């Protein structure tokens, strides 16, 4: 089974966050399985479950996300889904 | 079942805001096949074996850390107690071997290598004695080598001749490294009932019952427990234990997962998961503050031991359910210099050496990273070790002593060790002598508790 990862994005709401972040994923040819997004007191939070077929990509991906973080003043994290399964499911 | 939004948030909050981390992945490596009558060959074999087995440890751990988004703070190596492979070496050669270990650690990029050790809880072999003689110089001339001495067990009693020697070794090491606040002593532990698979430094070594190579993991997360408790300010103590238990469960599961992934990629069996709550000087990453959150004005005051016992037990219960192989020391560490809350306790006058000793009866290890007045004599240091060992021996638990008599400093001064080792207020020792007790020497017989067959 392909590995899946959880991408979370938090930051002050503005135009184009989803477009910018999903754009990066599309460029890395990563499919999005699930996406949820809310605005909480002006704060944009988004979580996505994405395909992570090639773990060796993670370096490039982290680098690109770092640029996006600076550019749009966001906090982005990406973690393999297993860790959430381990912590929250028996 | 899909992971819920709030569960994802909880994990991310633990990592980003509450200092959840994997404290260490430690690779145990057996060096028993490195024995040779020619010490030059031993040095060569040891260096080659360590760098070959652990060469990928750091890069692999760093890759896993990135993929899972959980920091692995330290990458370390534990080796066969060096005294066992010294055979006919001289003191000078044993010191050179320590320097080889230091070089191997540097080459592999690990921060510490543990196992410059001797197990002398009953008697002292030639190799053991060589290592003991070499220790002060070895610690003073290396940066990453950690040493431990087993001086007692429940089954054998306490070897007071060894205790006397360790007291003197600590004092000499302090003198040799006095330019750096006697930091050499921070790399030396005296143990009663040591465990063979402890991944934490300075006391890690690869025990006789272990395999060729193994990967063990130490998790941490006092910050996570503290923050969880802050959400339940009015809970009764049963509920407090429940909160700690649940939190420890989650932390441990994350640790075990990461450990298994690292082990698999290194093609080494997974050993054990050590569930110790180990504090750091980071804000809120303090065991003392958990005790204070439970209800103490300042750590060390009356009630500290009850709170610590509750916490230590709850950590074990949560962790034991979360991991298939729990081992190591598993409990709570109470190092003073590495825990801002403990430092404050001493400065407030609420926490003393006597109280710390009492606390070690109910927590995982012992007197840890305590800066003592430089005037403490070798006999006094030995007597402190003997007291702690007696607690371990009678209670069938591991106890340890890692104290630093800081030469030139006295009670009330503050000493900075830097980095992970932190800073500590100097504690004075009692002005009365224990020299006669230590001079008697011999072995304290194994207690009745040992007769369990």
What's this, in brief?
The complex is a heterodimer of chains A (90) and B (453). Chain A is α+β, with helices and mostly antiparallel strands and 90 residues long.
Tell me about this structure:
- The complex is a heterodimer of chains A (90) and B (453).
- Helices cover 37% and strands 38% of the residues of chain A.
- Chain A is built from 3 helices and 4 strands, in the order E-H-E-E-H-E-H.
- Chain A has a 4-stranded antiparallel beta sheet with strand order 2-3-1-4, with helices on both faces.
- The relative contact order of chain A is 0.29.
- The mean pLDDT of chain A is 87.
- Chain B has a single domain (1-442), classed as Alpha-Beta Barrel (Anaerobic Ribonucleotide-triphosphate Reductase Large Chain).
- Helix content of chain B is 43%, strand content 17%.
- Chain B has helices spanning 5-16, 39-54, 57-68, 91-108, 126-140, 160-176, 222-230, 237-266, 287-294, 304-322, 340-348, 353-359, 378-395, 435-440; strands at 22-29, 72-79, 112-119, 145-153, 157-159, 188-192, 213-219, 270-274, 367-373, 399-406, 414-416, 423-425, 443-444.
- In chain B, strands 1, 2, 3, 4, 5, 6, 7, 8, 9, 10 and 13 form an 11-stranded mixed beta sheet that branches. Chain B has a two-stranded antiparallel ribbon with strand order 11-12.
- In chain B, a hairpin with a 6-residue loop joins strand 11 and strand 12 (423-425).
- Chain B is globular and about 60 Å long.
- Classes of the chains: A alpha+beta (90), B alpha/beta (453).
- Chains A and B meet through strand 1, helix 2, strand 4 and helix 3 of A and helix 1, helix 3 and helix 8 of B.
């Amino acid at each position: 089974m392909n590995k899946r990862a959880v991408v979370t994005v938090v930051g002050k709401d503005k135009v184009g966050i989803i477009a910018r972040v999903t754009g990066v994923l599309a460029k890395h040819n990563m499919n999005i399985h699930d996406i949820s997004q809310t605005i909480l007191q002006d704060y944009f939070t988004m979580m996505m479950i994405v395909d992570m077929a090639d773990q060796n990509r993670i370096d490039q991906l982290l680098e690109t996300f770092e640029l996006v973080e600076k550019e749009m003043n966001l906090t982005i994290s990406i973690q393999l889904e297993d860790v959430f399964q381990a912590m929250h499911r028996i | 079942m899909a992971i819920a939004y709030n569960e994802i948030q909880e994990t991310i909050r633990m990592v980003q805001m509450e200092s959840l981390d994997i404290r260490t992945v430690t690779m145990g490596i057996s060096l028993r096949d490195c024995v040779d009558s020619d010490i030059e060959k031993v040095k060569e074999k040891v260096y080659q074996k360590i760098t070959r087995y652990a060469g990928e440890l750091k890069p692999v751990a760093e890759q896993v850390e990135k993929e899972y988004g959980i920091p692995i703070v330290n990458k370390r190596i534990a080796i066969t107690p060096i005294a066992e492979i010294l055979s006919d070496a001289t003191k000078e050669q044993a010191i050179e071997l320590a320097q080889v270990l230091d070089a191997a650690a540097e080459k592999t990029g690990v921060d510490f290598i543990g196992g410059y050790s001797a197990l002398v809880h009953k008697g002292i072999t030639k190799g053991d004695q060589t290592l003991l003689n070499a220790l002060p110089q070895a610690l003073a001339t290396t940066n990453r080598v950690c040493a431990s001495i087993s001086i007692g067990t429940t089954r054998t009693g306490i070897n007071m001749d060894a205790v006397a020697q360790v007291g003197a070794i600590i004092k000499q090491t302090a003198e040799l490294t006095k330019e750096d606040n006697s930091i050499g002593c921070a790399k030396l532990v005296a143990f009663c009932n040591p465990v063979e698979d402890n991944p934490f430094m300075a006391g890690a070594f690869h025990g006789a019952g272990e395999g060729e190579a193994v990967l063990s993991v130490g998790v941490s997360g006092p910050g996570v427990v503290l923050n969880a408790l802050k959400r339940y300010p009015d809970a009764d103590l049963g509920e407090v234990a429940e909160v700690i238990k649940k939190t420890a469960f989650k932390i441990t599961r994350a640790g075990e997962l990461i450990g298994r992934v690292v082990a698999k990629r290194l093609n080494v069996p997974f050993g054990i998961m050590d569930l110790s709550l180990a504090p750091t000087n980071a804000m809120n990453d303090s065991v003392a503050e958990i005790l204070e959150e439970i209800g103490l004005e300042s750590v060390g005051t009356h009630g500290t031991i009850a709170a610590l016992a509750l916490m230590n037990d709850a950590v074990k219960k949560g962790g034991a359910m979360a991991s298939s192989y729990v081992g190591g020391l598993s409990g709570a560490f109470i190092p003073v210099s590495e825990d801002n809350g403990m430092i404050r306790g001493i400065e407030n006058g609420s926490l003393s050496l006597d109280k710390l000793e009492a606390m070690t009866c109910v927590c995982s290890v012992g007197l840890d990273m305590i800066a003592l007045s430089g005037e403490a004599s070798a006999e006094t240091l030995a007597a402190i070790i003997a007291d702690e060992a007696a607690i371990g021996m009678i209670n069938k638990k591991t106890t340890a002593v890692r104290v630093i008599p800081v030469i030139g400093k006295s009670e009330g001064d503050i000493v900075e060790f830097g980095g992970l080792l932190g800073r500590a207020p100097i504690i004075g020792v009692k002005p009365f002598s224990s020299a006669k007790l230590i001079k008697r020497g011999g072995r304290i017989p194994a207690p009745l508790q040992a007769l369990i067959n």
